[in-house]
Amino acid sequence: MRQVTIHEAKTHLSKLIREALAGEEIIIAKNRTPLVRLDVLP
User: Fold this and answer.
1) How many domains is the chain built from?
2) Residues 6 or more apart whose Cβ sits within 8 Å of residue 12
């Protein structure tokens, strides 16, 4: 599981999507509080 900030997610969205497609779980957090999970549709 990888946790990134909202700013990081905005800056590196394409890279995070590639990582999610490769099976990595990506969590987007604000002030260390998890808010969103980037997931791949079946």
Assistant:
1) 1
2) 4
